[in-house]
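INFO  loader      accepted 1 record
INFO  loader      residues=193
INFO  predictor   begin
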Amino acid sequence: TKGGVIAWLIIGIIFPLASRSNGIKIAISTCLILAAIGIATPILIQIYDLKATVNGDFWWLLSSFAERINWMWPNALNNTKEHGSLIFGRGLGGIGFPQHFGEGVLYNAADNVMLYIYVTFGVMGIAYTIKILLNIARNSATIPKAVSRPISIWLLYWFSYGMVGNNIESPFMLFIAGLITGASLQKPPSKPA
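INFO  predictor   done
INFO  writer      dumping tokens
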């Protein structure tokens, strides 16, 4: 998909920079920027009622992105406002595949990882995501390079592909997210007295 190609381009640009001693911090900074763009884009589209029109010879190339702008992202936010809470979200099962089991009429895939997290957990989901990234940056001195490089690549992929895709409903991606969350919960390195 186009989202995967864009994700690998971002990794190809950022990862060589992240191969330095502060590499994981560069990757985390990039992920924080991508996360901010990921949640701000649907919100700004909703606030300013932006619409996308796609026509011409290559309409098919951007048609799925136009669908996200015109329908998917605004409806996800509307579902949260009308059937949930803008502060607390909609809870587990409030977006994505689980909706097929109870509210198929409201089904929305979100196709944006930060929007999915927001709709599910509300503002605390966004805060928790940021906290995980900051904890990994804090613990970067204790994470061996053999582990920090895959973490950097995976996080860059998660947040760049997550701008236009739903990583959360993929069992493999969620398993890796659990491992990285575990790495973020380690004790920070102790400072010498």
